[in-house]
Specification:
By secondary structure, the protein is an alpha/beta fold. It is 29% helix and 23% strand. Bound molecules: pyridoxal-5'-phosphate.
């Protein structure tokens, strides 16, 4: 069967991902391991292809949020160790079956694991410590019970102990971040002293790698930085964009002064204008808050503002002064109109923009 040619594609620049990975690696000591987070469809890009690329580039670990994401990677043939950050306690058997490393974050979860799995075989686990994020993790009052349970169940091999910084990117919160790091060291060492084998310790995410480099310990967990985004200016200048979202002009219309465009007649022509209809809408992930000039696409190297409301499957843009034709490319975001700018326009963060583009948008991996 002939392959479908899509109008709207998310191009993923695989070489740029490798370049970003190597930039972060250059900040680390040679023996520091790198886990790359590929949760949420590799921050929206496509889990398998990105994971495969990372495997080829010899990262040490992949990180996913839930068991489903880990199973998908195994089914696709990924062999790297995979840590599941918040495994479902009702599916610990599958975590083991697919050779994923479960993160244990509470006594309840730990006991469910012990009850569920075969304790005659060693099982690698990781332990999450809550040092101030207050989301998941054991806190300092729960450590002695945790240690006792782990010692009594020696089939459990602690591969790593980790925590997560709540505000690694924010200089105003550096005192808090340092407090988190100190608390982490103390708790991780308290646990580790009870075991004769080495246990990896890690706390840094992407912004942490840049801003708290000395606390890289045994491993770091790279996420958004791999995908080309940092809140640190100098770092941002060293990163390359991971993706470009583009579509094609489906139709061009000339609108007379006083006429309106789109639903609820929100796009009002205050003079004669020319519009282009682009086949991408909020069902594809184009946030509806970008309507009415809040965002501009790039057509023929010029800015074409959105006219009226974003529809479910389409959007209209103003191309009055742009030389363009049906079939020409319209860049929804690119190096010239970035994800960072888009996120600011609608009061969110790049993470949400990245992970919002729906499966309907065709991913095209460029090597
Ligand atoms: C997602 C995630 C990361 C990566 O965070 P970035 O800010 O994207 O670098 C690191 N650690 C944990 C536990 C995470 O869930």
């Amino acid at each position: 069967m002939r392959e479908l040619v899509y109008d709207t594609t998310l191009e993923i620049h695989m070489d740029n991902l490798v370049s970003n990975l190597n930039y972060y690696r250059s900040l680390l000591k040679p023996h520091t391991k790198v886990m790359v987070m590929v949760k949420a469809f590799s921050y929206g890009l496509g889990t398998y292809d990105v994971a495969k690329l990372l495997e080829e580039n010899k990262v040490d670990y992949l990180g996913v949020a839930n068991t489903f994401e880990g199973i998908e990677l195994r089914k696709a043939g990924i062999k790297l160790p995979i840590m599941v950050m918040k495994p479902e306690v009702d599916s610990f058997d599958l975590v083991v079956e697919y050779q994923l490393t479960p993160t244990l974050f509470s006594q309840h979860a730990l006991e469910r694991l012990i009850d569920t799995v075969d304790n005659s075989k060693p099982l690698a686990i990781s332990i999450k410590i809550d040092t101030g994020m207050h989301r998941l993790g054991f806190d300092s009052t729960e450590i002695s019970e945790l240690t006792k349970t782990l010692k009594a169940n020696s089939f459990l091999k602690i591969e790593s102990i980790f925590s997560h910084l709540a505000a690694a990117e924010d200089p105003k919160e550096d005192e808090f971040s340092c407090h988190q790091i100190k608390t982490f060291i103390s708790i991780a060492n308290t646990i580790s002293e009870n075991f004769s084998y080495p246990i990896d310790q890690h706390i840094l995410n992407s912004n942490g790698i840049v801003r708290f480099t000395d606390s890289q310990f045994d491993m770091v967990r790279l996420g958004i930085g791999l995908y080309g985004i940092s809140s640190d200016k100098k770092t941002q200048n060293n990163l390359l964009p991971a993706s470009t979202l583009k579509s094609k002009i489906a139709q061009i219309k000339h609108i007379k002064k006083g006429e309106t465009v789109g639903y609820n007649r929100r796009g009002v022509a205050t003079e004669n204008i020319t519009i282009a209809t682009i086949p991408v809408g909020y069902a594809d992930g184009l946030n509806r808050n970008l309507s009415n000039g809040n965002w501009s696409m790039i057509v023929n190297n010029q800015k074409a503002p959105i006219v009226g409301n974003v529809c479910m499957d389409m959007v209209m843009i103003d191309v009055t002064n742009i030389n363009c034709n049906v079939g020409d490319e319209a860049f929804i975001f690119s190096a010239k109109n970035t994800i960072i700018e888009m996120s600011k326009c609608i009061g969110t963060i790049p993470y949400e923009i990245l992970t919002s583009y729906s499966p309907r948008v065709k991913r095209v991996f460029k090597y």
